[in-house]
Amino acid sequence: MRFARRLDQVPPYLFAEIERRIDALRAEGVDVISLGIGDPDLPTPPAVVEALQRAAARPETHRYPSNRGLAAFREAVAGFYADRFGVQVDPGSEVIPVLGGKEAVAHVALACLDPGDVALAPDPGYPPYTSGPVFAGAEVNYLPLAAENAFMPSLDAVPREVASKANLLYFNYPNNPTGAVVADGFFERAVSFAREHDLVAVHDSAYTEIAFDGYRPPSFLATPGATEVGAEIFSLSKGWNMTGWRIGWIAGNAKVVERYRQLKTNLDSGMFDALQLAGAAALTEARDFPAEMSDVYRRRRDLMIDALRAIGIDAEPPRATPYLWIRVPEGHDSASFTALILEQAAVIVSPGPSFGPSGEGYVRISLTVPDARLEEAAGRIASSLAIESPA
Ligand SMILES: Cc1ncc(COP(=O)(O)O)c(C=O)c1O
After folding, report:
1. What ligand 1 atom has the least distance to the C-alpha of 126?
2. pTM higher than 0.90 for the full model?
3. What is the mean pLDDT of the chain?
4. What confidence tens digit (pLDDT) does each residue in 107-146 have?
5. Strands 166-171 and 200-205
6. How far is the centre of ligand 1, averaged over its atoms, from the C-alpha of 35 (Å)?
7. Does residue 100 line the site of ligand 1, with CB under 6 A?
8. Residue 321 beta carbon below 6 angstroms from any ligand 1 atom
9. What angle do CA 60, 66, 67 make, to 5 degrees?
10. What spacing in Å lies between the alpha carbon of 298 and ligand 1's midpoint?
11. Looking at ligand 1, which atom is closest to the CA of residue 247?
12. Using CA atoms, how far apart are residues 217 and 190, in angstroms rounded to an integer?
């Protein structure tokens, strides 16, 4: 049997590897604590579950949905954008549902890129920023994110010949994996860069609702000119504990949205109408739920940061996202530190280079496990480091 070469052109999906390793250890009877995947441990708000139950009982939701999405869903998104971000989105032409942010991040590349085109993507970054463009036959040019630059890409450093071939720019704030929040002026610079090079700017907005200490992450679409040059992909997964539901949307430039819809009519038949009604309930009846989740993650963030500091690992508390991006201790690289923690503490963290070459020297810790497990993990990490270098 022969398979398409494109599947060999992307690294094995990071989390699939991590899941395999967890299964192997658990099969040996080891009590593994996984801080590797950003999959919320707490349930979806009851109002959303009940809305799905009610909607699923209505036979009119049982037929093929449309890729345009239900008016009720699009209007709920427009209402949310207006109230939360002060952004006007036309529910008729500027938003459609997507089957999770991941689907949109990967597929938007198919809508925007031809073979030979370039996609500009943050490094470290969410892996589909690479696989989407590669599957489209395009090349990926990484934009390094470094602590010295507050994890913001330098668009000025993109060589002219690369920028001239680029037709897609991905960026993501609050950022996975670094936890960074957008610096003043960056969204404006993304708009001017997109105009200068006539490319599509796509903001991945998976984490705007998980933020701490009074910080309210903005939407890219609130930036003057943003809707002229691009779109934003939003997900209900993290803020509303809905990773299993597969609900998000793409909003912004009407041409981008329409091209995306056209692509999708060839790939899938849209989102189950009952799910869209449940998504609308999240945005209306459970709008404040992400603030409650943010309190949970803030508590866990502080707990883990304190535990790490106590063993000499200095970590900055992030202002958003359920992740800690930790520089590994002296004498380690990402792989050796990940292996040490796994073998000595049976705790799984994500090695930084799984998100791209600039992730070397870091690991990502996800706070999506119950407090007691997180405390247990912190204790085990402390003991494993003590074993390695006894005082
Ligand atoms: C940066 C980023 N974008 C998008 C997503 C997609 O989430 P989902 O497909 O569950 O909506 C994730 C999930 O981890 C993410 O980290």
Report:
1. 1
2. yes
3. 94
4. 999 999 999 999 999 999 999 999 999 999 999 999 999 9
5. parallel
6. 16
7. yes
8. no
9. 150
10. 20
11. 11
12. 17
Q: Pocket of ligand 1, candidates 131, 176, 271: which has the most ligand atoms within 8 Å of its Cβ, to mutate?
A: 176
Three-class SS of residue 320? strand
The atom of ligand 1 lying closest to the CA of 102 is 9
- Residue 211, classed as helix, strand or coil, is strand
| Contact between 381 and 368 (Cβ < 8 Å) | no
Residue type, 249: W
Distance from the alpha carbon of residue 200 to the mean position of ligand 1, in angstroms: 20
Which atom of ligand 1 is least distant from the CA of 175? 1
99 Cβ partners below 8 Å, 6+ apart?
246, 247, 248, 268, 271
Rounded Cα distance, 102 and 92, in Å: 23
Residue pointed to by tokens 């849209």: 270
Place of tokens 């270098």: 389
Taking only the tens place, the pLDDT of each residue in 137-172 is 999 999 999 999 999 999 999 999 999 999 999 999
Q: Whose CA is nearest to atom 7 of ligand 1?
A: 101
pLDDT average, residue stretch 227-252: 98
Q: How far is CA 298 from the centre of its chain?
A: 18
Question: Using a 6 Å cutoff on CB, does residue 203 contact ligand 1?
Answer: no
User: Does the CB atom of residue 75 touch ligand 1 within 6 A?
Assistant: no
pLDDT of residue 220: 98
* Residue-level pLDDT at 339: 86
Show the tokens assigned to 17: 């590897």
Under the banding of pLDDT at 50, 70 and 90, the label for residue 388 is low
At position 96, the amino acid (one-letter code) is: I
Q: Is any atom of ligand 1 closer than 6 Å to the C-beta of 237?
A: yes
314 C-alpha vs ligand 1 centroid, how far in Å? 27
Instruction: Tell me the CA end-to-end span of the chain in Å, nearest whole number.
Output: 57
Which ligand 1 atom is nearest residue 176's CA?
1
Residue 16 corresponds to which amino acid?
Answer: A
Strands (E), the chain: 33-34, 95-98, 118-123, 139-144, 166-171, 200-205, 230-235, 248-252, 323-327, 347-348, 350-351, 362-366
DSSP string covering 130-192, please? HHHHHHTT-EEEEEE--GGGTT---GGGS-HHHHHHEEEEEE-SS-TTT---PPTTHHHHHHH
282: its two tokens: 């999240």
